[in-house]
Specification:
Structural class: mainly alpha
Number of helices: 8
Radius of gyration: 25 Å
Shape: flat
Oligomer: single chain
Number of strands: 0
Largest sheet: none
Order of helices and strands: HHHHHHHH
Distance between the termini: 72 Å
Helix content: over 70%
Length: 162
């Protein structure tokens, strides 16, 4: 026999186990029904070879008609966006060989992206771009603009101020 307190405690624990189990089961079924890849599937992609990653990037780009973003909603897009970010660092440090650069250049939109990575504008180029923008608009660029060029120049200016 158990005390009233023990009985309440055991009853509460049992109901919590059922609730937690039901929540876990619901999550599992949502993952199984989901068309998005699971976290495990996304993590497994990290082990892919270079050619597999390039093929996956090519397929994604051809399907979506743009390069992936590391802040995209889709886990595959985020993975590929992050993968591209790592390639950018490697390319800018000269750590991607000619064969890998050629593989990337063969993917739609990547030729222009690689050109930007490998030929970043100088500080003087940015200064002249800012000067031209101010002459054309009669004001400094705004940091909360919806225009990507204005926003970029505002951020450039802010970094110079800091």
């Amino acid at each position: 026999a158990c005390s009233k307190e023990q009985w309440i405690s055991l009853s509460l624990a049992a109901s919590l186990d059922v609730t937690v189990s039901a929540v876990a089961q619901a999550r599992r079924s949502r993952v199984l029904e989901s068309k998005e890849p699971s976290i495990e599937e996304v993590k497994a992609r990290r082990l892919q070879s270079w050619s597999d990653a390039c093929l996956e990037l090519r397929t994604w780009v051809e399907t979506n008609d743009r390069l992936p973003s590391c802040s995209g909603k889709d886990p595959q897009e985020r993975y590929l966006g992050i993968w591209l970010g790592h390639r950018q660092v490697a390319a800018s440090k000269g750590r991607l060989g000619d064969n890998k650069l050629d593989d990337l250049r063969s993917i739609p939109y990547m030729k222009a992206r690689l050109h930007k990575w490998l030929n970043p504008p100088s500080w003087e180029d940015r200064r002249l771009q800012l000067r031209s923008w101010v002459s054309e608009h009669g004001s400094l660029p705004k940091q909360h603009s919806g225009d990507k060029d204005e926003l970029f120049l505002a951020k450039f200016l802010n970094r110079m101020h800091a």
